[in-house]
Every structure is written in C-alpha cells, then in structure tokens.
Amino acid sequence: MSTAPTRPADALRQGDRPAEARPGAAARTVGGVAGWVDDRTGAAKPVGYLMKKVFPDHWSFMLGEIAMYSMIVCLLTGAFLTFWFVPSAGHTIYDGSYVPLRGVSMSEAYASTLNISFDIKGGLIIRQIHHWSALMFIVALVVHMFRVFFTGAFRKPREINWAIGSVLALLAIIEGFAGYSLPDDLLSGTGIRAMQGFVQTAPVIGTYLVYAIFGGPFPGEMIIPRLYSAHILLIPALLVGLFTAHIGLVFLQKHTQYPGPGRTEKNVVGFPVMPVYAAKAGGFFFIVFGILALISAVVQINPIWAYGPYDPSAVTAGAQPDWYMGFADGALRLLPGWLEFEIFGYTVSMNIFPGALLLLPLVYVVLGVYPFLERWVTGDNREHHLLQRPRNSPVRTGIGMAAITAYSVLLFASGNDIMAIKLGMSINDLTWFFRIGFFVLPPLAFWVTKRICLSLQRRDRDTVLHGRETGTIVRTPDGRFFERHDTELTPDQWILVQHEPVAPLELEPAVDENGVARPAARKDRLRARLSRFYFADAVNPVTPEELAAAHYHGEEHEAIEPSETSASGGAAPIESAEAGRH
Amino acid sequence: MNALAARRRHPAAIAILIILGLFLTGAVYAALAPKPADATTRALPAQSVEEGKALFRANCSTCHGLNAEGRATGTGDQIAGPPLAGVGAAAVDFQVGTGRMPLPRPDVQAPANNEIKFTQDEIDSMGAYIASLAPGPGVPSEEAVDPTKGDAARGGELYRVNCAMCHNFAGAGGALTRGKYAPPIEGVSGRHIYEAMVTGPQSMPVFNDANLTPESKRDIIAFLYTIDEAESPGGMPLGSLGPVSEGLFAWVFGLGLLVASAVWIGAKSA
Amino acid sequence: MNEQDTPTHGSEVGPTGHGTAVRLDEGHIIGDGGIPERFSNPGLPVHVPRAADLDHDAARRAEKQVTTLFGISILGTLLFIVLYFLIDVEETIYVPGIGVTSASNLALGVTLALALLGIGFGAIHWAKTLMPDHEMVEERHPLRATDESRDRVVNEMREGGNSSQLTRRPFLKYTLGGALGLFAVPLVLQVAGSLGPMPQKSLSLTFWHGGPSGPGQEPEFRPLRLMRDPENTPVRADEVTVGSVYHILPEGLLDLEEGVLEEKAKAAVLLVRLQEDEIQSEKQLDWGYQGIVAYSKICTHVGCPVGLYEQVTHHLLCPCHQSTFDVTRDCEVIFGPAKRPLPQLKITVDDEGYLVSEQPFAEAVGPSYWERGQ
To answer: Are residue A99 and residue A230 in the same domain, yes or no?
Structure first.
C-alpha cells in the first residue's frame, strides 16, 4: 500500500475514503433507503453478493450485450409507437402531409404509420430506431451465437442456456416478421401474401390453417390486429421471459472465460460488478442506444411511404423480407418446381412448404440439439468453464462454418435479383449457382476450415517446440553448430499448450467375455465412428516431454507433430470396430 | 505542442485521421461532382427528312438496313437491328436521346449512356425521317409531359400497378430474365419516360393511349418527379433497394460500429 | 536453462495421441483417469499499472475527458429540447452525402445520439482509466448439489406422495391426470374453432364466376367485361395492340362495398396480345380472341402478382421468387420454383366490341393447396 501516494488513481479514490469512514449525507441516505428495503426483503445479502460478482472482460462477451440492449431499445421505442399506431385494416382516405399519397385509399394501419413518419414530431426517428434496433438485435444475436458455438461455450453445464438461446433466436425472427408486416405497405403486404401462399401448401390442413390465421379469405381485416397482438403482447412476453431465464442462468453458472495464465476451470478472473462492470455494461447500453440513434438519424430504413399501400394486384421489383427471413425466402427461390406432385388427387407442394414451413423450425431445432449430440459423441460429461479456441476443435469449427455457408447461400439467394442488376449478371445463372452452391459449398467450407484449424494447431506446436531463440551458438562435439533455443515455456505460450489432448473413443468388444452379444453394440459402433470423425486426426498440444525431447535432439529434429505414432494410435479404434463385426 | 505530439501516437489517432479524411473527400466530392444538366429545354427542331436520311445511312444502316428495313440475326459479327418503319419519332428521340443508340456492341440489351452521340437537331432530323416511312408515335409536347399539370397521387396508383413490378417502388430498376433488366428511372426526363411508355423499348411493353391515357402518363411523370424531389426523409436511401441494402448496412456498418466499441471497451487502457 | 534442465517425469508418458484410446466412460481425455501429463498453468500475469495510476497529470486528464464527455451528453439533451420546439416537422434540409432529408429527424436523431453516446463513452472511459483495474479471482464450485441434498429431495417427494396417499390410491392419480390433461381442451377449442370460417369452395372460385366469391357465396356465371386496373374502364379488343400489356379486373369488382382486396387477390388478370402464329397451343388460341389472351396474374407459387411481361420474349416473370412463364406456350413454367402454368381466362367480345369473359377460370388460381385437385 506504500504505492498509493505514487498512483494518482488510487490517490483520487483515497479522497473518498474519509467519506466511507464517516458517512456523509448521501451515504446516509443510501444506507437509509437500502435499510428500509432490506428490513422488508432481506435483499442486502443477495445484492451484496451480486455486487462482488466477477465478470471476465472480452469484447466477444459483449455481443450478447449488444443483442440485449438492442432488444431493450426495441421494447422502449415500441411502447412509444403503440401510442400512435392504429392496428386496423379498416379503410380510410389519406389526407396527411405526404403529398404523393394524398387522397389514396388505404388501411388505417398504413395511414397511421404515415402519420408517425410525417406528422408526429420525432415520430420518424422513433420508428427508425425501432426498426434499426430490430435488425441489429438479430444481427448481434446471430453473431453472439457464432461466438458461443465456436468457443464451445454451450458445453455442459450450459446446454440448457444454448437451447433457450435457440428458442429466443426463433422467436426474435417471428417477432420481426410480425412487426414489419404491421404497416400494411405494399412490400410487407407482399410478404404476408407469400406467407399465406406457403401456409396454404401445408398438407391436409393448409387451407383451414390459412382461413384460421386470416379469419377468412386473404387478406381480410383480421390479420393486422392479430399480428399486432402477437407483436406487442404474446411474443414479447415470451421473449422477455426466456431472456430473463437466459441471463439468470449466466449469473447462476458464472460466465465462461477464455483460457490464459491464471484462468482455470475452477475460477473466474475479471472485474467485479461494482464499480467496474456496472460502469462498463451500463455505459455500453448508452453506446448501443446512441449508435442506433445516430444510424437512424442519417440512414433511412423501410420507407413505407415509398412502397404505397398494399394492393394484391400490385408488386414492386426487389421484393425481399427483412434480412433474417431471407434464408427462408432464398430457399423458396431455389427449390425447383418439379418437386410438386399429386397423389390420389391431392397436391403435395414439396417445392414450397419445405423451404418455409419446415426449414424455419428445423434450423433452430438442429441448433438447439447440437450440444446434446456433441456430448453423446465425445462422451464428455464434465463441466466446462474455460472456452476453447476454435482451432482446437477443428471438426466442430468446420461444422459451424459449413452451417454458416449453407445459411449464407440461402440468404444471398434471396437477394438474387438485386445481385443480378448490381453485378450485371443473369438471374437464371445466379439461381443455378446458388442451387449448386447449396450442396457444394458447405462441404468445401468444412474441409477448408478443418484444414486451416489443423495448420494453425501445427503452427502452435511449431512455435512451442521451436522455443525462443537465445542467440547462443553451440558447437557439438562432432563439429556442427546450432543455435540454442530456450526451452522454458514463456507465460504467453501457455495459450498454445493449455488445451486438452483428445483421441477417439475406444470401442468395447461387441460380445462380452462369455460370447454374448451386447445389445448396445450397434449404437456404440456409430458413436465410435462419429468420435473418429471428430478426433481421428487431432493435433494435440505439446507436452513437457515432447518439448524436452525436441531440444535434447537439438538441431537434428524438431518434431512438429508426433507423426507415425499418432497415426497408429488413431487407427486402433478402427481395428476394434472391425473386430466387433464378426 | 507537446501534448499534440504525444497524442499523435495514440492508437485512436489513425482512426480519427481516416474518418476525417473520408469526411473531407466526401465533402469535396459532393461540392465538385458534376450535376446532371437539365436536358428538357431544347431549340425548335429543323425538321429535315433528307438530312435525317443522310444521318441514318451514315450511322444506323449497318444494323437497321439502308432503308430501315431491318436486318435479321446471324450475319457474322453484324448486329441484328429491327425494322424501324412505324416506330415513330418518339422511338428515335428515346433511343438516341438517352444514348442507347447507336449500340456500341451486341449485348442482352442496350444500356443507357450518358454520352449522347448527336445533337438534339440531328436526333429530330432522324426522327422526322423515320416518321416519314410510316406513321408512329411522335415526340410528346412540352405540355403532355409537364409534371406540374399531373396528379402525383393518382400517378402513384397507376405506377404501382403498371410499372413498379419491373422498375421498383422508387424507380431504382429491377432484374428481368437472363441478364436483362428494367433500368433505373430516377432522374430521367419526363419526355423520355413518356416516349418509353408509348414505344415500349426493348423488353418493355407498350402503353399506348388506349392502355394509359395521355393524362395518366402525365400523372405517372408527375409522381416520378415528386418522389425524385421528395427527398428521403429518413436519411440516406441506400439505393432505394429495400431490405437487401438495409440488411447489408446492418451487418457491415451497424455491427462494425458496435463491435468496434466493444473492442475498445474490452481493451486495457494504456 | 537448457537441455539439462528439462523436467523429468517418473511415469511413462509418451507423445500425445500415442495409441492410448480411451474407454467410453472416461470421456475423450487421454491418460490415466483423464489427467494427462501437461504443462502447468503459469498463474496470473503481473499487473501492469496504467498511465493514470502512475501519473497525476494523466489521471487529471482522464477526469477532464470523462467530465467533458458527460458535458457533451448534457449539451446533446439541451439541444434536443431546443431543436424539438424549433424545427417544424415538415422542414427539410440538404445534407451532402444524404440528400434532402427531414430536418427534425436528423436533428433529433443526432442530438439524441450525442446525449446517449456522451454518457456511454464517459462512463466507460471512467471505468477504463480511473476505476480499479486489478483483476479479481472468484472461485467456481461445481453446480451439482451434494448427494445428501439430492437424496433429501427425492425422499421428500416420495414422502409427499405417500402422505397424500397418492401411491396407495391409484385412481386418484389417474383421474387427476386425466382432468389436468383435459382442462386445456375447452380453451384450445375456443381459439382454434373460432379463429376463422371454413374455406368451403371459396379458394376455387373467383369474381369471374359472376360475383363475390367468399366462403358460403355461390356466384352465378355471367359474362363480365375486362376492366383496366385501377382506372375501372372497359377494354375494346381493337385497343389491345401487340406488345402492350393490360392489368385487368372483372367488371364490378372495384364497385364492391367490401371485400375488394379479397376479390382482387384472386381475380387479377393480365391481358396481352400475341401474333396468332406465335401461339403454340391450340387451346390457348381458342380461349383467346384474335391472339388476345388473358391469364391469371396470381402466381401459382405463393401468390405474388406476376406482372413482369417482356414483350420481346413473351416471358412473364414473378418478382418475388423468379418463376418464369412462357406466354406463347400457354404460360408454362420455364424457370423457377412454380410448378403449374398460370390459369387462362376464356374471353370473347360483346356486341359493343368490348372484351368479356366467356367462362370463369377452369381451375383454382394462385398457390397450390392439398385438396386443389378435388
């Protein structure tokens, strides 16, 4: 503590200490209010605990915060918009201040959105913040999901939270769709028309479903109020509920952290909530809100006045949904027409409903179950709190990149007409490119990503085994020279060797010692095969043993990878799998 | 002085410099960039069929034939040109006046071109020559294309039913099949819009006076003028391309700004 | 510091991946009991103090920066208030790079952003420069409860079951389960049953059948004139020239009191004229009038209006998902996700030379559905 006088930041803080020792007026007030609350709730203990709670600091941990804050901004601005928006498909003649639509017949929903944009002071900025933050909410949510996936943060004990997150992601895009459909403009009306079209293709119940959703024939007057109720009541309630559970679990399980010196599975290293994290997280809310406000001030979004009111016989070129629905729209563009067929006089539209009705939930179900699948394959039942570097799990990283590639192909396909005019290409060629790309690019992405990961891992090994160059030249007894490399592991190299070495699961014999077949043998064989897929060509971290060996041999040999031995090691499970067959 | 020198090494200095540089470049460009000239005013045409015929033979006959009878496809590297009898002076004024003709090279369709090869007088002469071959739609009068005389709201309704599916809600253009496209019609003069409607250039269907009355055409022109001037109240329109450019902006700039702030927050202070 | 100093290990640990595959119950970690011989964690690095920790001036400077940022925020808020009252909602302003834009949107957005960013950047700069930056270590404990407390919960559950006699009287269990399972049915039934009417035949009828075609309505066929959309004027056959395209609605649709959009969504038609020798289908020629043909404008994919007519190739393109129909071949699909051709409307002319429908659509228009073929 002798350093205190030389450290001004501490000195500044020290100025506060007398206040702590002898409570000032402010502190007494806080103590008084807190005391009043604590007398009635006993909150002091949990609040005190929360204030001391430690959060690790890393920019990628703030992606989820961006999503959370964007959602809060959406809730806030959305509440404002409800004061002026009229959720009704009732007809009216517009007489507001936007000249090109004056005297045009339209729905009250559309007219009130025009009023928000042109006649209510500050209404446009609130509308634009609402829409931009909705887009950013889902962008941030998706990138947050990438971070969690590629660092293995979804592993035990966080599978539940990953599943909650997947449901949140699905709800978010449905919420977005319901929201941008409300103004009843030509573009969003076309979106509802397409939704009506693909719901109608659902086998057996399609037409009943459509008449139930629309309260009669399309478009009807029920869809706007119903979407409104879903958009401002039902889905937000679910979103907020699940989001609270999501955050609650993060508190309960404590945040994961990146590996590094001093960071272990048994601790959390970071800053306490009070004061550092409170200032950082609180400040970041204002930054996110501020950036959204700035974007909304200078960049126009969803100019509903330009689209005009919805009319089933009109349409605009470049009819796309908001970006997060793009993958489903892209799938609809790519599926060829010949997939539709008739059976016993009934029509089955395999060209439509898989792209929309099945794909949407399927993507999120696959996402949600991935942690359970991976845990079954690896047989890893331990708790994990240290994150993995993506390169140290090459197969998972490859799977992730393949999935992102497939998703991106569909997403870009939904912009094929815009790409055609902006790149001067044929829309037909682009469609074919995406159709083929959907099957070719994901495996390619998997292979390339896995190779890159393995190379990076080898480079890590190389870096460690090579040691630090000391500049000392040593002459060997037989007259050769080599530079001595330092064999001590420097603290910054810890990151290169900290991860766990892995190997595929060994298969137990298919028959027990008495020659009786074990019932689970077939499932185990599948599991062993998947395990080999994950871990067969793993590049494992350098061990102290290897480092010593590498430098003992000096100039002769620098084993970057234990080549033959690992190959034979990897082959072992195959043999037992073969053995299990007879 | 010293403080400034010290701050030059600050990591944020580079970012601030780049931003300042971008701002300056943008401001200078906006100030100096050439504004499209107003092409609606023109001298009275010296209608000369003979002069037009000479110009036509010299510049157009390679593709359209010596007497504008047209040329079929498949003759070596020559471009096929349709017969021109009956297309009218309006078609000539549109095709040549927007720089689409003469076509520099065979392509899926003739692109609009800022470099117009002929003076308005020469274009009018060629128009007179083509009109002399067979009757066809003429160049509209100033009054027929006067946006101030049209009803923008009614034009908007007509536009959304008849035009928006190809040219997009804001006239930003759209894709057709196999590389063809409906061009952007933002900033196009009312005369050329009118001529395009009556002549149906390239893939575009014809909207004759029975289909859209001259008043309806003027309403549409009035609508297009209104949305051209009527600004983009919310800020940069991002090309008026709808959700695609908005999504791209969110991913690139929105996410970029937010992640940059997150990186700054996560970085240890010097 | 070199070869001699290498750590020695008593146990036999080969290089990684050394043929030591693992048993299923051990996870995928190599070595005895899942704990391989590895490097040890070097521990937290030494804390490096910041400029503001060492230098009084740096700390003062940081304080000044933070207060300036907070000041900017206050200024932004004040400006917002002033500009809110100062700028009229209809005022526009020219901004280089943006164009003409709403003055109040720009002013309110930018000042709001200043107010927010000032607080945000100020608070974080404060946290980064002046608040303590010693990293704290918090211990983690396994999430699972102890075996005793787990057992206690199980016991208490069982105890509860026993004391309530649930286990001894199984009928209590069955009837309660049944009641709980069924009580939601009335609620679900109310919602599901009352959301909308049965479609009946309305999906296969259009206004061209003679009038409004909603659920329960049975229009009787009469010839209807083809009217321009949106002008609502009839079309004479001699007005339709080759190369032009007419957007058509049935006579009387736009005069409806209600249900205009619902009828439009099924009845919109596209009218074009081809040279008769270009038409490749006998039926198509027969159902048209002197090469004038009328087709449903509602895409057979998901129902967007197929409005993009290329007069040279006679292709119809849907802007939503790029289904392409060839008008010379009875609107067959030549590209894209739609399967069925657009249904043709049989037309003729009436005594006055106006185009009229001769019969309604022979099949359901628009997107496919399960019982479409019935």
So the answer is: yes
Q: Which residues contact C83 (CB under 8 A, 6 or more apart)?
A: C104, C107, C108, C111
Smallest CA-to-CA distance from C370 within A8, A349, B226, B57 is with A349
A550: which 2 tokens?
Answer: 């590498």
Cβ contact C105–B265 (<8 Å): no
On the 0-12 / 13-18 / 19+ scale of CB atoms within 10 A, A160 is middle
> Are A168 and A288 in a shared domain?
yes
Q: What is the ipTM of this complex?
A: 0.86
Per-residue pLDDT of A125-168, as tens digits, reads: 999 999 999 999 999 999 999 999 999 999 989 999 999 999 99
What token pair was written down for A214?
């629309």
Q: Do B242 and A320 touch (CB under 8 A)?
A: yes
> Any idea what the CATH number is for the domain that residue A244 is in?
1.20.810.10
* C contacts of B26 (beta carbons < 8 Å): 96-97
**Does any domain span residue A426?**
no
Matching CATH topology for B39-139 and B140-232? yes
Strand residue runs (E) in chain C = 92-95, 99-102, 136-139, 226-228, 245-250, 269-273, 292-296, 308-310, 315-317, 324-326, 332-335, 344-349, 355-359
| Domain C207-373 belongs in CATH node 2.170.150.70 | no
Q: For residue A281, give its domain range.
A: 62-314+323-388
Q: Which residue of B has its CA nearest to A313?
A: B161
Q: How far is CA C283 from the centre of its chain?
A: 41
Q: Please write the tens of the pLDDT for every residue from A211-241.
A: 999 999 989 899 999 999 999 999 999 999 9
Give the chains touching B; criterion: ≥3 Cβ pairs < 8 Å.
Answer: A, C
| Contact state of C133 with A573 under an 8 Å Cβ cutoff | no
What one-letter code names the amino acid at B5?
A
With residue B195 as reference, give the H or E element that holds it. Answer: helix B190-199
Q: What is the pLDDT of residues B144-190, one digit of tens each?
A: 888 888 888 899 999 999 999 999 888 888 888 888 889 988 888 88
Per CATH, is B39-139 categorized as 1.10.760.10?
A: yes
The answer to the question of residue A49 being in a domain is no
The reply to whether A303 touches chain B by the CB within 8 Å rule is yes
The length of chain C is 374
* Residue from the list B161, B176, B200 with its beta carbon closest to the beta carbon of C317: B176
- The reply to whether A184 touches chain C by the CB within 8 Å rule is no
Of A267, A379, A544, the CB nearest to C137: A267
DSSP secondary structure of A17-74: HHHHHS--HHHHHHHHHHHHHHHHH-THHHHHHHHH-EE---GGGGHHHHHHHHHHHH
Q: Is residue A467 part of a domain?
A: yes
Confidence of residue B43 (pLDDT cuts 50, 70, 90): very low
Number of domains in chain A: 2
In order of A103, A116, A228, A251, A488, the CA distances from A85 in angstroms are 20, 7, 10, 37, 68
The mean pLDDT value of chain A amounts to: 85
Determine, for residues A334 and C202 on separate chains, whether the beta-carbon distance falls below 8 Å.
no
- CATH domain B140-232 topology: Cytochrome Bc1 Complex; Chain D, domain 2 (1.10.760)
> Is residue A372 located within the same domain as residue A459?
no
Whose structure tokens read 């060209």? A351
If phi > 0 it is left, if psi is from -120 to 50 it is alpha, else beta; for residue A204 that is left
A472 with A545: CB under 8 angstroms?
Answer: no
